[in-house]
Amino acid sequence: MKIKIATSQFSVSSDIIRNKHRIIDQMKAAKSAGATLIHFPEGSLSGYVGVDFGSFDNYPWDELKNATLAIMKLAMELKLWVVLGSSHPLSGKNKPHNSIYIINNKGKIQDRYDKRFCTSDAFGKNGELKHFSPGNHFCYFSIKGIRCGTLICHEYRYPELYREYIKMGVQLIFHSFHAANMDPVRQKEMEDEVGRKYHPINPGNTLPEITMPSTMISYAANNHLWISCSNSSAPESCWGSLVVRPDGVIEGRLKKNSDELLITEINTEIEYYDATAAWRERAMKGVYHSGEHVNDKRSHNRYEL
Questions:
Q1: What is the pLDDT of residues 245-304, one digit of tens each?
Q2: CATH says 2-277 is which class?
Q3: CB-based burial of residue 285 (10 Å sphere; 0-12 exposed, 13-18 middle, 19+ buried)?
Q4: CB–CB of 15/64 below 8 Å?
Q5: Model pLDDT for residues 201-221, shown as the tens digit of each residue
Q6: 94, 93, 144: which is closest to 114 by C-alpha?
Q7: What global pTM score does this model have?
Q8: Phi then psi for 180, rounded to 5 degrees?
Q9: What residue spans define the domains of the chain?
Q10: What is the DSSP secondary structure assignment for residue 126, as one 8-state letter?
């Protein structure tokens, strides 16, 4: 099965209308490039709370709703699927969800994924749990016979989520990130966390730049699936959006701090190298060895030569 996707990268901000115009421009560009779907970063419409703006106090939810409806209308007109990062308000005093809307090519919300692992300490008093309620479900959908799933930023730290999607038959993950809009003070702090002497021997100077792309590479290879990684390009951005194919090879990558689209043809019919094909399912069932065990006293005795 084949599908052409557009992986977005633009400077996400606190201005909903500005974000909407960037999203609309990239939707039109994606359609012109022949894409069936466009994948946007975390919080791409709403902005990302705690970084792009301070809190949801007096947040313009009606403005966000109207902007979302405009994007849905355009999706229908363009006949384009949209994987849209945003924030989803709840009722009463419940905190919003950090969400991805799956908008189909008819302009309807096919589903919504809510970030399950929000950053925080164990007490939920800081990080994202200060602003968001965690989600409670997986989200998968199919386009042209390819089963797709969604995850958000910090969830790259939890390989169990990828394994669950593999059990569901997912072949393509849209993983939305917001590792950007760092001010110089925060950037220096993050670079110091790594340690200046280690900068020359690592693929980046901050932990996100080192760990996020490399984890996506390993997850693609270990699970044998495609991953589209969309990130904000608001300076200073930690890394550029990329797409990784099932053997762990980066299919395409954008330069950070620039507004661009990455167009990729996903072809699930190509047989990419898969070192774990024979034993992956077995390992997922808790059988942690290949082949058959032997019954040999020299095998059992681990204390003598």
A1: 999 999 999 999 999 999 999 999 999 999 999 999 999 999 999 999 999 999 999 999
A2: alpha beta
A3: exposed
A4: no
A5: 999 999 999 999 999 999 999
A6: 94
A7: 0.97
A8: -160, -175
A9: 2-277
A10: S
